[in-house]
Amino acid sequence: MHIELESEEKQREIISQKLLPILDTMELLSGRWKIIILTALYVGGKMRFNALKKVIPTITGRMLSKELKVLEEHGIVVRTVKNTMPITVTYELSSYGHTLDKVFVTLTEWGTQHRQKMMKP
Known about the structure:
The protein is built from five helices and three strands. It is mainly alpha-helical. The protein folds into two domains: 1-30; 32-119, Arc Repressor Mutant, subunit A, CATH 1.10.10. The protein has a three-stranded antiparallel sheet with strand order 1-3-2. Strand 2 and strand 3 (88-93) form a beta hairpin. It is extended.
């Protein structure tokens, strides 16, 4: 019995260690908009704020600004301000943000398959 309990405890510890990176990732990327914003930047490349807002029509400007700021703070998105008239601000994935490229591809493929599956009678 004692050996079995040790084994269960060890298994829980291993599972917890495996889940920690996922929990951290989900905490950062969770919510309705972050993955959508990141995917738009992955597909669209460098984009201005209003262009991003147009490709995600249901997001408010306030929410887009808030989410971009969080992603910028984590080094996933780069905000570039050009001293033009008027000032030009663009957003793009950083090199660190591009480490998520496989995630965007996988989510898109899975989402496409899932939509097809759900649309079948």
